[in-house]
Design brief:
Layout (H helix, E strand, L loop, with lengths): L3 H18 L7 E7 L8 E5 L6 E5 L9 E8 L5 E7 L1 H13 L4 E6 L2 E7 L8 E8 L1 H10 L10
Antiparallel strand pairs: 1-3, 1-6, 2-3, 4-5, 5-8, 6-7
Length: 158
């Protein structure tokens, strides 16, 4: 019995630490520019676009990421999902302006939490630093966004 007590206590200790060791979930937001299929596996990956169903190549490194998000505003979509307006910080705004100028006529792929949510056709330079996602977000996506970013026009809460 005396030999089992340290093992039991150690097991209880690990069980009590588990909530502290659990990683907090954060929202991922990535915008990938359309690439040339001749760029090769190192720089580009083939994807099937979520709306058009077209197979294109996108750059592996995102142009904009969750680190570039300053705030957002969620809204219900007609299909029962949610949409959002994403407001970028200065770095993200400049990156979006550059890619929308350099890649005019191509497509941007938007991923949220690892899922392809929408595709955006680049028809003009975007200088306001805002990306509109009309639909495709789940309630759980919005809940995670609320933990990471403030609502547009409000201060960040924690």
């Amino acid at each position: 019995m005396n030999r089992c007590l340290p093992r039991v206590l150690f097991g209880l200790y690990l069980i009590m630490l588990q909530p502290l060791m659990a990683a907090e979930e954060h929202c991922t937001f990535r915008v990938h520019a359309q690439a040339n299929e001749n760029d090769g596996d190192v720089f580009a990956s083939p994807v099937t676009m979520p709306i058009s169903g077209k197979q294109i190549f996108v750059e592996k490194i995102p142009v904009v990421s969750e680190h570039d998000v300053a705030a957002f505003r969620a809204m219900p979509a007609a299909d029962g999902s949610f949409g959002a307006l994403i407001e970028l910080n200065e770095h993200g705004r400049l990156a979006l302006e550059a890619v929308s100028t350099e890649h005019r006529g191509s497509t941007l792929l938007v991923l949220v939490n690892g899922r392809a949510v929408t595709e955006l056709l680049v028809d003009r330079a975007v200088s306001d630093g805002r990306i509109y996602l009309p639909s495709g977000l789940a309630r759980s996506d919005i809940e995670i966004m609320n933990k990471d970013w403030p609502q547009i026009g409000r201060h960040k809460h924690r």
